[in-house]
Amino acid sequence: MRRIVVIGYGMAGHHLVARLLRAGRHTPAGDFEVTVLGAESGAPYNRVLLPEVLAGRIDQRRIDLSEPDDSRVTVRAGVRATEIDRERRLVHGDDGSVLPYDELVLATGANPVLPPLGGIRDEHGLKPGVHTLRTLVDLDRIQDQLTAVERGGAALNGSALNGSALNGHARKLRAVVVGGGLLGVQCARGLTLRGLEVVLIHQGSHLLDHRLDADAAAILARTARGLGIEVHLECRVRSVLRDREGRLTGVQLADGFRLDADLVLLACGSAPATGLAARAGLAVDNGILVDERLTSVTDPHVHAIGDCTRVHRSLRAAHGLAAPALEQAEVLAERLLGGPALYQGSSTIARLTATGVDVAILAAAPSLVAESRPDHVARTVRLTDPVGGTHRAVTVHGGRVVSSVLIGDVSAAARLTRLVDQPGPLPENPLDLLFDTAV
Ligand SMILES: Cc1cc2nc3c(=O)[nH]c(=O)nc-3n(C[C@H](O)[C@H](O)[C@H](O)COP(=O)(O)OP(=O)(O)OC[C@H]3O[C@@H](n4cnc5c(N)ncnc54)[C@H](O)[C@@H]3O)c2cc1C
Predict the structure, then answer these.
(1) Do 247 and 297 reside in the same domain of the chain?
(2) pLDDT tens per residue, range 266-285
(3) Which of 66, 125, 151, 179 can bridge 268 by disulfide, Cβ–Cβ 3.0-4.6 Å?
(4) What is the domain range of residue 403?
(5) Which ligand 1 atom is at minimum distance from the Cα of 11?
(6) From the CA of 47, how far away is ligand 1's center (Å)?
(7) Sequence-ordered alpha helix ranges (H) in 10-60
(8) 77 assigned to some structural domain
(9) Are residues 321 and 250 part of one domain?
């Protein structure tokens, strides 16, 4: 009986277990048992949907993922792995448990990056009024503050708010969201839907600056402003301000300007959770380094998938998106059961679906781009309508769609996504790809 231990029961860990069980039904090598250690207590859930719950668009109970009902799987929710002894092939849990393994999978995800701001944390973690959004616990902490106020001006940060409340009272609650990436914009919109006044502060010259060019981002910023979000670009928060009782009152910007705030949400990106792996002597460089088999470059019995992983050959940083995490889980499940699968990168689609702000950013997997015929020149067409709030762009290369950005109207996204993965004949004019009606 092969003993597989999985550390991390997030989206990648959960999908790996499901795939092992499914494939293991038909595989002779399916003689295995899996133990999963998950630091978060409770059922696994779809992390991607947390902003939708924050926005009040879906109920928290609807994001749970189904749990396996199979005697080969033991899930230890609420147990954190604290040490890996690679020599003896043992994993230590913070409940005192010691688990032997034949194959170990690290699926530890990522942690929010905390910017170096004064006044945001103490020895217990983030101080009252300051938030990140990575887990259900984070979400609950935000919800607790909002709910307290919704229930009649009770306390935000433990204090009365001079009659301020979410809807229709003297002063609306004010949130400052720090970071204008996908998550920051999505959270900013979510909080406006909850009735807050929201200021979005972004250090870069335009929103989503890792994913959008300036023209496309300008459309997005305009849309966000139209929905009541105050967007400040090229702007840096220096510190969080508190009154004498320690209650959060606002933020101070690098230029000395102050903004009032009742709540600060930090959305400054995430970093692969590699501490455990590094302490175990595994090679780590902005992600646990693995080869195309998703096996550590240091130890053939250790594997890594999801946000904590960096595939060595491409030396590409972890994606931080769900699709690659799930595809890696599928490849590794097949390999652990003796199959030949290799991970060759994922096509990605980054979506922002907050009400009134629709964005889809598609990118073909690097291996697909490499397949494009080298004698062809990449061709990009763009169509921007600032007044209508739409931007569409597509790049084709060697008979393939290799990337696309859609803002405001994402109706062509599904078809473009299909064309990225299963190329079909493309219309002569790439502009025709940008409308759902195109043939
Ligand atoms: C708010 C939010 C919105 C997102 N929206 C999108 C989106 O729209 N589209 C998209 O593609 N992606 C989105 N993502 C990213 C996506 O959720 C991640 O890419 C995906 O969750 C990665 O899965 P993972 O299993 O690698 O990591 P995670 O889902 O983070 O799971 C890692 C798990 O490992 C556990 N863990 C860590 N260390 C230990 C340890 N030592 N012992 C035991 N357990 C441990 C953690 O507690 C966690 O439960 C979003 C992420 C967030 C936070």
Answers:
(1) no
(2) 999 999 999 999 999 999 99
(3) 179
(4) 358-434
(5) 25
(6) 6
(7) 11-24, 50-54
(8) yes
(9) no
